[in-house]
Design goal:
This protein is an alpha/beta fold and 253 residues long. Helix content is 35%, strand content 23%. The chain has a seven-stranded parallel beta sheet, sandwiched between helices. A three-stranded antiparallel beta sheet has the order 1-3-2. GO terms for molecular function: DNA binding; DNA-binding transcription factor activity. Keywords: DNA-binding, Transcription, Transcription regulation.
Length: 253
């Protein structure tokens, strides 16, 4: 919704905050046009939001700063993007053998569409995702066990890691909270990242699933360097300029 006249600073920053919460990111030029102010004004507003810990500035705008959030809260965000990613990633799922899907809601979206994989074994460290895979009709859906992280609803810790490393996977499908061209893929905690690392050590390939709001940001703990990732799947067309920094580092889908 465009605004025909500019709004004062406090209201602008509130609106920008709402955009970040709703969409996960704010584009500088689009926000300036909608709020009827200059791009320089929006840059200053985003700097204020970053100083308040509510945004992370990236080229061309800003992304939402996201700490640990429950599975339910994360599921409500960017549903159409996750559905698009799941459909694209489906082409990379083997018909037989075993795969791992992590505790991300994006991987959960993939698990929910495995309706033609009745000979596939799926291992995950997410109670929600194991149920999604079972409902879809996979051959076997296995939960790692471990300690429940009350902030993210995922299973972490030594038991989860040992269980994750106990199977041989053809592919691990993993989400990320940050995707940075230099740093790689990252997550909200070392515990979250470590389970993904154990999945990957036992897998032939790592497929990273991330919507575009994660691009250009990094979180606390690195889960994968780019030489450990086979394919990055986003909701974007692989030719999208927002993927330019990653094009030489990883195959894009």
């Amino acid at each position: 919704m465009s605004m025909t006249s500019s709004v004062h600073g406090e209201q602008r920053r509130r609106i920008l905050g709402e955009m970040l919460e709703r969409d996960g990111s704010v584009a500088l030029a689009k926000a300036a046009a909608e709020l009827g102010v200059s791009e320089m004004t929006i840059r200053r507003d985003l700097a204020d939001l970053e100083a308040a810990g509510l945004a992370r500035r990236v080229r061309g705008g800003a992304t939402r700063v996201v700490g640990p959030r429950s599975f339910r809260d994360r599921s409500a965000q960017r549903r159409s993007a996750k559905a698009r990613i799941a459909q694209k990633a489906l082409a990379l799922v083997p018909e037989t053998g075993a795969i791992a899907i992590d505790a991300s809601t994006t991987a959960g979206a993939l698990g929910s569409v495995l309706t033609k994989h009745s000979s596939l074994t799926v291992v995950t460290n997410s109670w929600d995702n194991v149920h999604s895979a079972r409902r879809a009709g996979v051959g076997r859906a296995i939960l790692t066990g471990g300690e429940m992280d009350d902030l993210t609803d995922s299973l972490v810790g030594p038991i989860a890691c040992r269980s994750a490393a106990s199977y041989g996977y053809r592919t691990v499908f993993a989400g990320a909270n940050g995707v940075d061209a230099s740093f790689g893929a990252s997550d909200v905690s070392p515990e979250e990242a470590q389970v993904k690392v154990e999945f990957a050590r036992a897998a032939d390939d790592v497929v990273l699933l991330a919507d575009s709001t994660k691009l250009g940001s990094r979180d606390l703990a690195r889960s994968f360097a780019w030489d450990e990732v086979s394919v990055l799947v986003t909701e974007l067309d692989p030719t999208d300029e927002r993927l330019d920094e990653l094009r030489s580092r990883v195959e894009l889908r």
